[in-house]
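Regression test case RT-17, inverse folding.

Input:
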């Protein structure tokens, strides 16, 4: 497919070139089943960062790295001033797919390469960014890098954060060599658009190609620590037990009950749980587990949190154990800029794609950029709604459609 002689509005990305970059990045940290494990600031993350930065430089972008390791590549426009930015993340969860985050960054590079090949210079500068630790799976909260970028989390606090493996963000940044010197939040951003796989089942089930994302639901992550009394599993009468494992599992079961009772968009997940001493014949005296609650409605999300804590207090008292809890992440629902949502929807239509408006169930860097500039997102279908799973898959035709919507949306915003 050649863009020779085409006007900006007729430009199209090169899907095979984009697919090749997705495959090349997906080979770094690859795990059986076609997935990827590149936990934030791991050696695999560093290797992925090095590859993407090398592509940024090959495309002539001027690359800056800030104090939390966010990387921004800028392509100058004919006018000075804040760039229009495309971005996402390239860190993954432990059982990640090759599209979550990576697609938005690599599609941004594909847009740059398409414009370079067509010798088109936009009025506003363009930028492509990847933000540190979007996933929050190793270091809480998620969207950490973009939250620092928009001034929502002090850099020092982020650097001091200790991860699930006992090392700090700051130490890991130094180890991987991405503790940059650029001030956080530079450059300021004129508008931000993120292409991302939906990670849910809606577009695939409805046979729709593009999601014009209206906003992101609220997120509440809490870590509970329950302390009981370890004792012999065989000799201890039930009435004499103070079983931390039982209380943890009861709270996990109740989280599911809360989601069922509230219905609608309410979701609840206990994704991480560890018991001690974690032995078949010893009553657990220690349990640490996480509860992820989300809802598009802030008031209902607060009600879910209230019910969870009320139940935890009640069941702990009844079992004679104590518990403490700490907040790992808490973000209210975010609405994207209506003009950007309209633009994504109209652009998808103009390119002949089916499109629908929808919320995002997952958190994204776009929800942080929305604090400092008009922001929006473009979704493409996740087959079977599968994500955070090695079987995550999006068809190349949908990737091509999404990347072309990104190209034309960025051109509109930068012209
Ligand atoms: O948890 C999330 O929604 C995102 O994947 N960080
Ligand atoms: Mn993501
Ligand atoms: Mn993710």
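Golden output:
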């Amino acid at each position: 497919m050649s863009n020779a002689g085409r006007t900006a509005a007729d430009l199209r990305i090169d899907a095979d070139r984009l697919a090749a970059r997705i495959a090349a990045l997906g080979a770094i940290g690859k795990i059986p089943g076609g997935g990827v494990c590149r936990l934030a600031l791991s050696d695999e993350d560093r290797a992925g960062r090095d590859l993407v930065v090398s592509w940024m430089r090959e495309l002539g972008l001027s690359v800056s790295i800030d104090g939390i390791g966010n990387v921004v590549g800028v392509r100058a426009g004919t006018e000075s001033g804040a760039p229009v930015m495309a971005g996402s993340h390239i860190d993954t969860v432990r059982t990640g797919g090759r599209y979550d985050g990576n697609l938005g960054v690599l599609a941004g590079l594909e847009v740059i390469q398409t414009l370079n090949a067509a010798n088109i210079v936009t009025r506003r500068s363009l930028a492509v960014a990847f933000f540190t630790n979007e996933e929050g799976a190793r270091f809480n909260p998620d969207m950490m890098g973009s939250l620092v970028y928009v001034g929502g989390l002090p850099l020092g606090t982020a650097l001091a954060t200790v991860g699930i493996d006992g090392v700090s963000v700051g130490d890991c940044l130094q180890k991987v060599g991405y503790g940059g010197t650029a001030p956080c939040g530079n450059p300021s951003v004129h508008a931000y658009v993120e292409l991302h796989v939906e990670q849910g089942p809606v577009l695939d089930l409805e046979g729709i190609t593009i999601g014009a994302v209206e906003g992101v639901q609220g997120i509440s992550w809490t870590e509970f620590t329950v302390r009981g009394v370890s004792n012999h599993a065989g000799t201890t009468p039930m009435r004499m037990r103070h079983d931390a494992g039982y209380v943890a599992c009861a709270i996990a079961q109740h989280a599911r009950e809360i989601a069922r009772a509230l219905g609608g968009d309410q979701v609840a997940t206990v994704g991480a749980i560890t018991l001690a001493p974690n032995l078949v014949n010893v009553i657990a005296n220690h349990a640490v587990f996480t509860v992820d609650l989300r809802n598009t409605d802030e008031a209902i999300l607060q009600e879910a949190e209230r019910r969870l804590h009320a139940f935890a207090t009640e069941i702990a008292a009844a079992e004679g154990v104590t518990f403490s809890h700490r907040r790992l992440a808490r973000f209210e629902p975010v609405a994207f800029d209506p003009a950007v949502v309209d633009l994504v929807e109209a652009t998808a239509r103009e390119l002949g794609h089916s499109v629908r408006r929808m919320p995002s169930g997952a958190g994204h860097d776009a929800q942080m950029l929305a604090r400092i500039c008009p922001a929006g997102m473009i979704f493409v279908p996740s087959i079977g709604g599968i994500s955070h799973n090695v079987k995550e898959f999006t068809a190349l035709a949908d990737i091509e459609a999404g990347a072309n919507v990104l190209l034309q949306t960025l051109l509109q915003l930068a012209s």
